[in-house]
Design goal:
There is one protein chain. Helix content is about 35%, strand content about 20%. The chain is built from 2 helices and 4 strands. A 4-stranded antiparallel β-sheet has the order 1-4-2-3, covered by helices on one side. Helix 1 packs parallel to helix 2.
Length: about 110
C-alpha cells in the first residue's frame, strides 16, 4: 500500500487533469513527469483555443490582449509573459492560471454540489 500511495501521488496531477475544462490554477514541478505532461497539455490546448477564438472572431478576453488563455505566469516565482516563442523548461516550478473561453452548451444542467 505505501508503494501504491507513492505512485498515486506521483501521477495525481495527471490523473485529475481534465482537457475539456482547463480553467483553474496550476502549480507544476517540471521535473515530475506527470506535472510536465500537464504543462505540455495546457500549452497545447492554449494554442488550439487561442487560434479557434481568433478565427471565430470571438472577443479577446486574455489578460494581455493576445488571445492567450494563460494568466499570472511564474517560473521559479519570477513573473513572465507567456508567448508562443517561450519554451517549456525541463525543471523548475511553473505556476499559472488558465481561463478557457469554452462554455457549456445552451441548456446544459449544472451538477449538484452534493
Amino acid at each position: 500500500p505505501a508503494g501504491m500511495q507513492a505512485a498515486a501521488k506521483a501521477v495525481s496531477s495527471f490523473m485529475w487533469f481534465q482537457e475539456g475544462n482547463l480553467t483553474g490554477r496550476y502549480r507544476l514541478n517540471l521535473v515530475d513527469p506527470a506535472d510536465c505532461a500537464v504543462a505540455e497539455n495546457c500549452l497545447l490546448v492554449n494554442a488550439w483555443e487561442s487560434e479557434v477564438s481568433r478565427l471565430a472572431g470571438w472577443p479577446d478576453v486574455s489578460q494581455r490582449g493576445n488571445y492567450e488563455m494563460l494568466r499570472n505566469e511564474e517560473h521559479n516565482e519570477v513573473p513572465f509573459n507567456y508567448t508562443r516563442d517561450w519554451s517549456l523548461p525541463s525543471h523548475g516550478l511553473l505556476r499559472f492560471d488558465y481561463s478557457t473561453v469554452r462554455r457549456p452548451p445552451a441548456g446544459a444542467v449544472a451538477m449538484s454540489e452534493a
